[in-house]
Specification:
Layout (H helix, E strand, L loop, with lengths): L49 E3 L6 E6 L13 H17 L5 E10 L8 E12 L2 E10 L6 E11 L3 H6 L2 H7 L8
Antiparallel strand pairs: 1-2, 2-4, 3-6, 4-5, 5-6
The structure holds tetradecanoyl-COA (MYA).
Length: 184
């Protein structure tokens, strides 16, 4: 991965152990919000990622590129692929049971991804330092050990629940999340 200093963890930053109550190894993660473009089952043209954690620390998911995801004819749009990276990385930091948002997302595009391709996504945390989480992801064509088509590195920033109250719809989060304290 070509990674800038902004998405490289400082010396000593380590990924924390999963907190009590975090999904157990092998658990399916489900959607965090039905209308989410990345994982929502109610979104008509979203990515419909289905995810699980094989070990309680990393996340695996699949994304099948559809007609709605094209840039050039019959090829995935680069922004859509970045969205898939953002989503699977977001799911991996969500394992720590704190609210984070994307601050910076860097993406390497290595291969074109045709419509109909299933991308096998994997994301993991390289370290956390204060409010900053340093994460990475890759998308492989056709199989978990297929050729790498996309790589991403990201800096996610921990926020309070006020972030969602002030800028979004906290009630919608409360309706779908019992595992966050949603009354700031
Ligand atoms: C909770 C329930 C929901 C469930 C969620 C499930 C997730 C599923 C997946 C969801 C979908 C996927 C997820 C999505 O799509 S999340 C949606 C996309 N992201 C956003 O909308 C975030 C918009 N940005 C902001 O709200 C603010 O800018 C944030 C909160 C990020 C920081 O503003 P805040 O005022 O709070 O803090 P700060 O400015 O003092 O910064 C703090 C530190 O961070 C450093 N910094 C900041 N930005 C950058 C940057 N770009 N590069 C390098 N560094 C950066 C900064 O220098 C500082 O460092 P230091 O000076 O301390 O050293």
């Amino acid at each position: 991965m070509t990674r800038s200093s902004l998405t490289t963890p400082p010396p000593g930053a380590a990924a924390p152990a999963p907190p009590p109550g975090a999904p157990l190894p092998g658990a399916a993660l489900g959607s965090h919000y039905g209308h989410c473009f990345g994982c929502g089952t109610e979104h008509p043209t979203g990515l419909h990622l289905t995810a699980r954690t094989p070990d309680g620390a990393t996340v695996e998911a699949e994304f099948t590129v559809g007609e709605a995801h094209q840039g050039a004819p019959k090829l995935a749009h680069g922004g859509v692929l970045a969205a898939a990276m953002d989503e699977v990385i977001g799911m991996s930091v969500y394992l720590f049971h704190k609210p984070y948002v994307t601050g910076r997302l860097e993406t390497d595009y290595l291969l074109p991804v045709p419509v109909g391709t299933t991308l096998h996504l994997r994301a993991w945390c390289n370290g956390i330092s204060g409010r900053k989480a340093y994460l990475e992801a890759e998308g492989r064509i056709g199989a978990p050990d297929g050729p790498v088509a996309v790589r991403a590195a990201a800096l996610f920033i921990e926020v309070s629940m006020e972030h969602f109250a002030e800028h979004g719809d906290l009630a919608a989060i409360a309706a779908e999340h019992q595992d966050f304290e949603v009354n700031p």
